[in-house]
Design a protein that fits this description.
3 copies of one chain form a homotrimer. Chain A is mainly beta and 231 residues long. Chain A has strands at residues 3-4, 9-10, 15-16, 21-22, 27-28, 33-34, 38-40, 45-46, 51-54, 73-75, 80-81, 86-88, 92-93, 98-99, 104-105, 110-111, 116-117, 122-123, 128-129, 134-135, 140-141, 146-147, 152-153, 158-159, 179-180, 185-186, 191-192, 197-198, 203-204, 209-210, 218-221, 226-230. Helices cover 0% and strands 32% of the residues of chain A.
Chain lengths: 231, 231, 231
């Protein structure tokens, strides 16, 4: 069953699969594809070629296996999804959040309000991101990561969650995404190793390699990163 | 009003909004979307799924605000835009330039002739790029950056323009993109901090972090980058 | 001539050009474009907006020139191509391989079976990748590279093949992609310089810059990378 507000503006070329709900004053541009289980809340704007609510699937080459049932995918009120955004099923986006061109967010993530997830950012499964957080272009956010409020992650930042680096298929059972607390700033080109905790209001310098926990309020730099000073 | 040359070859599935001009012998492939204010000059080829002349918009999560009026977007003669290229309104691309798959260029940029902006490259607003310049795959070019002629920027290069790293919303008033002079070469994985000037014909080594100006004709390497030798 | 199995499930919006073969139980989603010379083998699933079998073309800004004839592009049985994948003509993908959202693979590559090429990965021309190899999100694989079996390449890894870094147009005649032997692991944010050989079962640490050959079974780290220990 589809529930589409008569006050929504849907391009004729948009493909709306069954079991989709679109609230009032939503705008859906051309060639968008919306899969079952998706709710688009009031006044959100979905630009051309977005794909929303996609099932994760595997041809047998992934360590994880997937359910073939659609979850609930929610795009919050006033969000803007730029061209080509891909959202996987079961992910929730808060209100007033901007998703940049071609960013892709995997299943079961929770993204907050007033965030920016910028162009070409790839976010893996089951990650949570707070409110007012910005993740800039071409960065990768790993699975099972926890990112707080008012965090700024610059461009081309890498994060990882698998200490075995793909060498142990059982590693999927004990993956450890980094934890990034509120008000943290991470510079361009930095990398976070699995399980590191970056304390509140810390600053990670550009190109830094974070191999261990960073205390709150400290500035770290270098490869590997070392504490340079207090904020 | 649309002005489409009868000698242009436009796929039936292309969406051409009002106020678009397409010159002779242009080829527009399937599922392309062209927004108002866009001019595509003679013999350019626009591959499938490109989105041209898009307005920048904000749900209130960005520090910048935007005009809701379309500017003039120009794609020069003989250009090739590969699948999924996104151009924002008010950007001008010179002639004989190649834009790779899924590269995205924000509003009010000026890109020269005979350039390559390769796959997944994201270019921010109001940046200028000269002629015969190549920016390779998955790199990010920040806003307000000035890049000269015959520059080569390798893959996964990061550039930044905000010394506050998102910590100061007023920073949008005094952003400082790097300046890259003619004939500069920047290696893979390098990062440029805000406002640095890279002098003519300098070479930045792979993985280098450029924290201060680089004199013309010098080779720099390391994190942070230091002068190693003359060219 | 098209040869499309009556047992294939093709969305009405898919554009299938001439000289395409689609085997039984293939699923082609909406707004896919398939160019001539493409074969999609049994049970492969092609998600929305993929572009398969595209010709490489040049507006005169590239050092290479291209044939205007389509080669043979093969997608193996049981493969899954996520939304927006771009494959260039003459590339072969083995069976049971997953291509992530918006990955792009240039012409004349050979990718093996049971591989993952993840989101936003760009692969250049004439590269070969073995079986059971994973290349994670936002990495770049250069042209003429040889990657073995059971290799793991993490996120935001850069690789290069041109020692002149674009300074010599004749360099296209003697490009040297890195060689990555079987069972190698490469950490997040690492960079490989042209022509390096990474020996069997070696580990490259995150953020490392590989400037020379890495012996088999060694762990290397740092900028530039140095041998730290045996596996």
């Amino acid at each position: 069953m589809k529930r589409i507000s008569p006050k929504a503006e849907i391009a004729k070329t948009a493909i709306i699969h069954d079991d989709v709900e679109i609230e009032e004053n939503v705008v859906v541009h051309d060639y968008v594809v919306i899969y079952p289980g998706t709710v688009v809340k009031a006044r959100a704007e979905i630009y051309d070629h977005c794909v929303l609510g996609k099932l994760p699937t595997s041809p047998g080459s992934t360590a994880r296996t997937y359910s073939s049932e659609y979850g609930k995918t929610v795009i919050g009120g006033n969000c803007i999804l730029c061209p080509g955004v891909v959202l996987y099923t079961g992910t929730t986006i808060g209100h007033n959040t901007l998703l940049g061109d071609y960013c892709s967010i995997r299943e079961k993530c929770v993204i907050g309000d007033y965030c920016i997830i910028s162009r070409n950012v790839s976010v893996n499964y089951e990650t949570t991101i707070g409110n007012h957080t910005k993740i800039m272009d071409n960065s990768h956010i790993t699975g099972n990561m926890k990112i707080g409020n008012h965090v700024f992650i610059s461009v081309l930042v890498a994060s990882t969650n698998d200490n075995s680096m793909g060498r142990d298929d059982d590693a999927v059972k004990h993956l450890a995404g980094p934890v990034v607390e509120d008000y943290v700033t991470i510079g361009a080109g930095a990398s976070l190793l699995p399980g590191v905790v970056v304390g509140r209001n810390a600053i990670i310098g550009a190109s830094a390699l974070v191999t261990k926990n960073v205390p709150a309020g400290k500035v770290v730099m270098g490869v590997p990163a070392r504490v340079i000073r207090d904020i």
